[in-house]
Amino acid sequence: MAKARKAVARRGAGQTRLPKVGSGELLTLLDFLRYAVSRFTEAKLVFAHGTTDPVAEAAFIVCAALHLHPDQFETFATARVTTIEGRKILDLIARRVTTRKPAAYLVNKIYLRGLPFYVDERTIVPRSFIGELLDDHFAGDGDDEAGSLISDPLAVESVLDLCTGSGCLAILASRNFPNAEIDAVDISKDALEVAARNVGDYGLQDRLTLYRGDLFKPLGGKRYDLIISNPPYVDAEGMAGLPRECRAEPKLAFDGGADGIDVVRRILDEAAAHLTPQGGLLCEVGRCRPQLEAAYPHLPLLWLDTEDSEGEVFWIAASDL
Fold first, then answer.
1. What CATH code is carried by the domain that includes residue 218?
2. Can you give the pTM of this predicted structure?
3. How high is the pLDDT of residue 17?
4. What span, in angstroms and rounded, lies between the C-alpha atoms of 31 and 43?
5. DSSP state at residue 235
6. pLDDT in tens, 199-248
7. Closest by alpha carbon to 281, among 293, 257, 265?
8. Is-contact 209 183, C-beta < 8 A?
9. What is the separation of C-alpha 252 from the centre of its chain, rounded to a whole number of angstroms?
10. Which pLDDT band, with edges at 50, 70 and 90, does 307 fall under?
11. Residue 307 burial (10 A CB sphere; 0-12, 13-18, 19+)
12. Do 79 and 116 belong to one domain?
């Protein structure tokens, strides 16, 4: 992708007009990517759904139209696009600009940790940092403090994903903890229909059970070795200022109450009753760390960083709850 960005910059230097569609000026994947970047930049689109800039967004859309994984863009960057393929790409570019819907909704696909998941308007577009943390800090071979959070992934027998949405984090957890039974809960019937499709696509019906309900309520007294959650955590000010792209997603998946941590409070207050003695809670809270630390000053929350985030996900052991 770095090479693609450099190539876009070179081809765009000194260019004062957009290519004429259908004139033969758009030939290769890279040509279409450069054109898309121009359109997206001109339209001042917001990128918050798996991509962080117009180049990555354009590559995602071009590859989706051509049934390629985004990682394959550079391999085929100079390959020529057929007329039918070109029309499909241009249609997606135009729809992204005119509707301002997340690209994932336009192609019904998003990637997390390199894996594809189905999404549509019934559920939020997943973009959690938890997948990276499961890969980096729960393998039992880390050298830092976070590396020992779970010493033996093979010993994890039960995992709970709260506010599962499309089910992607539960599915990723099934890969990190191959011996675990996975439960996933969401209050939204619509979101669970999307999750069920993804569970079926990955053939996990026998290991991953979906529950509809409010957080822990449908689970009775069940306890888990690990609870993960990416709950709603946008505060009232943030809800009022959501960009148009985000307003296309279900409001329920964002709204965390006045200070953003209404749902997080409930998870923290109830988690101890649903964790095994050696278990723990991994929870994403976005930019709500100050509010959370003010509300729970005595809890030893361990804040974990990722490649693109700092202090947006915490871990706490059951013994500290």
1. 3.40.50.150
2. 0.88
3. 45
4. 19
5. -
6. 999 999 999 999 999 999 999 999 999 999 999 999 999 999 999 999 99
7. 265
8. yes
9. 16
10. confident
11. exposed
12. no
| pLDDT recorded at residue 4 | 54
Of 62, 83, 107, which residue constitutes the final position of a domain? 107
Is 166 in the same domain as 280? yes
Domain limits at 122? 112-320
Distance of alpha carbon 104 from alpha carbon 273, whole angstroms: 37
**β pairing state of 110-112 and 302-306:** unpaired
Binning pLDDT at 50, 70 and 90, where does residue 137 land?
confident
Structure-block tokens of residue 168: 């992607």
Q: Is 147's pLDDT higher than 90? A: no
| Residue showing tokens 């970047």 | 37
Q: What is the pLDDT of residue 13?
A: 40
List, in sequence order, every beta strand (DSSP E) within the chain.
110-112, 115-117, 158-162, 181-186, 208-212, 224-229, 275-284, 302-306, 309-317
Residues 175, 96 share a domain: no
Instruction: Tell me what pLDDT residue 50 has.
Output: 85
| E strand spans, 12-165 | 110-112, 115-117, 158-162
Q: Measured between alpha carbons, how far is 240 from 249 in angstroms, rounded to an integer?
A: 14
| Section 174-202 average pLDDT | 97
Whole-angstrom Cα distance, residue 249 to residue 121?
6
Q: Is the pLDDT of residue 171 over 60?
A: yes
